[in-house]
Amino acid sequence: MDRKSAPESLLPLPGAELEILLALVDGESHGYAIMRAVEERGGGRTRLGPGTLYAALKRLLAARLIEESEKRCDPEPDHSRRRYYRLSGFGSRVLAAELARLSALVRRGRRGLRLSPAGGRS
């Protein structure tokens, strides 16, 4: 994936990549904290295992959707080896494009099923 690509050219995002980008919206984080954030946001129904997480982080770094942070947030000595990641500007644009795409799908589906915005039938 190329940083100069239009954000829409990278869509749809695979589930793990979408979850990671959403976890980084609030700021930089390390891998274990990303895994916890995904699980908490999904109410325990969504989990990223270490293999899935680190493979997805590698792909997101290569695509320049995220960046590795130079600073370390945790002052604890045992945390000094952790890598911290943050959403890049390009990653923010790709995430916004993906959220717009998903919102359009949901609207279309609701109209097709004649669902109200609250989820009940109209």
Task: Please outline the helices and strands.
Elements lengths: L14 H9 L5 E2 H11 L8 H13 L3 E3 L15 E4 L1 H25 L9
Antiparallel strand pairs: 1-3, 2-3
Helix pairs in contact: 1-2
Quick recap of the structure?
The protein has 122 residues and is mainly alpha-helical.
Sheet having the most strands: 3 strands, antiparallel
* Sheet/helix structural class: mainly alpha
Q: Radius of gyration over alpha carbons?
A: 17 Å
- The residue ranges in which pLDDT falls below 50 over 5 or more consecutive positions are none
Arrangement of strands in the largest sheet: 1-3-2
**How would you describe the shape?**
globular
First-to-last CA distance: 42 Å
Q: What would the average pLDDT be, to the nearest integer? A: 90
- DSSP helix fraction: 40-55%
Q: β content, as a range? A: 5-15%
Q: How many strand elements?
A: 3
Q: What is the element string, with H for helices and E for strands?
A: HEHHEEH
DSSP helical segment count: 4
Features:
about 120 residues, 4 helices
Task: Please describe what this structure looks like.
With 122 residues, the protein is mostly helical. Helices cover 48% and strands 7% of the residues. A three-stranded antiparallel β-sheet has the order 1-3-2. α1 packs across α2. It starts with 14 loop residues before the first helix and ends in a 9-residue tail after the last helix.
